[in-house]
Amino acid sequence: MIKNNFIFSSILLFFLILGSGCTNSSGNIATISVNSDSEYVNTFEDLNLGILFDFHFKLPNADKSWVNLWVERYNGGKKESQPLTQLSYGNSPNKVDEGQLGFGIINPYPEDTLVFLYGPGVRTEPSIIEIESKTDIFSAWDYAFGNEEVELELGETKILAVYRETGSNSISTVDLQDEEAVNRMIEQDDMVLLLKVKITSTTVEKDVKQLMSEKMDIEGWKFLDRFKNNLFL
After folding, report:
1. Of 67, 73, 87, 145, which is most buried by a Cβ count within 10 Å?
2. Which residues fall within 8 angstroms of residue 129, CB to CB, at 6 or more apart?
3. Tens digits of per-residue pLDDT, 96-151?
4. In this predicted model, what pLDDT tens digit does every residue of 172-188 receive, in sequence order?
């Protein structure tokens, strides 16, 4: 019995990896690039509204994908239990979604700071967040990569941008692709906001849940064959 469960679990793991690989084949990988000179960004700057991180985002297989966009906040090196703000959407009626995606901070310095997230055709309502009032604070913000187009693999969590505050006399630049450098930044700065994104495949998850709910008798193995064949379509 234990041996059969091990074999079954191994098969499930294999199909998860295989299904992810098929979805990530050439031409089917989501891409994102910095859009720092967009109309959105220019409007924010012209009206002195605050800070906007804007990206151009393209999602193939949008009808079979789920996008999770969120902001983590760290105070004194400690991560808050819940995201500062988050946006989740997916199973689009379109095979390909393409448009702008980003994170905005309205009025970041005084009280009544507002934050919001947006993607192609979706957005969150601006929400007020609590920020401790401090004096002599240095702040900095930056994208996690340059002007190049970046691929987003299924299941991969990617840092897109950062906003930081520190009470020290200076604030250094950080390579956000370096995990150790990011951890040092979180420990050293008074407050850090990290914008992150993760894309998952809804098709693989649904098929695996259905497979796990079936008994591995003769009919179960027939279903396994059908599931395997569908992955190669």
Report:
1. 67
2. 84, 85, 113, 114, 115
3. 999 999 999 998 876 789 999 999 999 999 999 887 766 678 889 999 999 899 99
4. 889 999 999 999 999 99
- In terms of C-beta density within 10 A (0-12 exposed, 13-18 middle, 19 or more buried), how is residue 38 classed? middle
In terms of residue numbers, what domain contains 177? Answer: 2-231
Q: Count of domains in the chain? A: 1
Asked if 200 and 68 touch (Cβ cutoff 8 Å), the reply is yes
Q: Are 119 and 62 in contact (CB under 8 A)?
A: no
CB 109 within 8 Å of CB 129? no
